[in-house]
Amino acid sequence: MPDFSLLNPEARPKPPPLTKSDVAKEYLTAYNSICTLLWLSIFGRVVLLIPITGYESVYEAAGDITKWTQTVAVLEILHSAFGLVRSPLPTTLLQVTSRLLVVWAVVDQFPAETTTSPFYSSMLLAWSATEIVRYSYFVLHLRGSVPGFMTWLRYNMFYVLYPVGITSECMLVWKASEAAGGTWRWVGLGVLGLYVPGSYVLYTYMISQRRKVMNGKQAERRNRSVTQ
Questions:
Q1: Shortest CA distance to 58 belongs to which of 69, 72, 42, 70?
Q2: Above pLDDT 90, what percent of the chain?
Q3: Annotated catalytic sites, by residue?
């Protein structure tokens, strides 16, 4: 006999209410998904434009979207500060503010000296490749299934991309400092001096994170081989 109670909306079982953890998870999934698409757009523009029109035209097509996409990352400082993610606040603050300095105080203020440089294009390539993998990894992690190749990319690509990005940033800061002249030139050189300890902190943090994750993966593989 059919169950006519299913036709009555009041008789149907109600889904459990969303918890704060569920809401945070859905928000972070949406945020990381949007950021993945934005950085994919930047990466695609740079890769397509360089062989067609040269790196001198990259800023015209990718400058604004890069500036605002990086500005959105201010939210990641809040994510860390309010405990939505486990990323340490000091390293998140250092990473985000250093990039904001480049896009707003360096590139945006001195476009003639910085945007036609190949270092601007190499910086965007390093940033976008890193962020595509990072945000994609976070989306998959939040959904509970991260392929092995994605974990490998997440914790190995930085060995190459981070030095490329940092070198490119430093070269752009130097070019802007030379163009500014006067007191601002010395301010720029002071910023470059801060890049040395700052980049060391970020780089060693990423190495420690890689060691922790990769050691965990090796332990999982050993446990599986023992139980089989």
A1: 42
A2: 79
A3: 162, 169
